[in-house]
Design goal:
single chain; 4-stranded antiparallel sheet; 3-stranded antiparallel sheet; 7 strands
């Protein structure tokens, strides 16, 4: 990344059927040329990798915009052909490699521009699992306990008169 702000939310749909991408971008130095997910680096949070999932319909020739899409992982047309071939030629092999790389922090999103052909915005995908319902229940019970403790009035120490 070259100092350009950006945030992307990439969500893996339950069951691994698709990836949902929500990526606003702004203040680019160059105009957009392409964007995609690269996979799989040899080490977490570092290195480069080939393109795995191109972002079809990504706006090109602009310095700011929004991109939102649902990319079906079971569709061979969603994948970069070379990535698909490198992983057994099947969508299952490609999807498995990508999901493993995301879990290991070895996949990244890249926006390429006219000023930075290798990528002006680049960010590694960091797996952040959704809490289980039991986790939410424990959080709720803990918050209720804190509220109950906060509502208790402090008692005056023995032998002293309360004001």
């Amino acid at each position: 990344m070259h100092g350009t702000p950006g945030t992307a939310v990439v969500t893996l749909e339950t069951g691994g059927r698709s990836i949902l991408v929500d990526m606003p971008f702004r203040d680019l130095v160059g105009t957009t040329a392409a964007a995609h997910i690269h996979c799989c680096t040899s080490e977490a949070f570092t290195g480069t990798a080939p393109v795995a999932l191109p972002f079809a319909g990504f706006p090109t020739g602009v310095r700011a915009g929004d991109y939102s899409a649902s990319i079906p992982l079971a569709d061979a047309a969603s994948w970069e052909p070379a990535f698909l071939a490198a992983h057994g030629g099947t969508v299952q092999g490609a999807a498995s490699a990508l999901l493993d790389a995301i879990a290991a922090n070895e996949a990244y999103v890249n926006i390429h521009t006219s000023a930075y052909a290798n990528g002006e915005i680049r960010g590694f995908l960091v797996a952040a699992p959704v809490p289980e319902p039991s986790g939410w229940a424990m959080l709720g019970a803990g918050m209720a306990g804190l509220l109950w403790l906060g509502r208790r009035r402090p008692q005056a120490p023995a032998g002293r008169l309360a004001a």
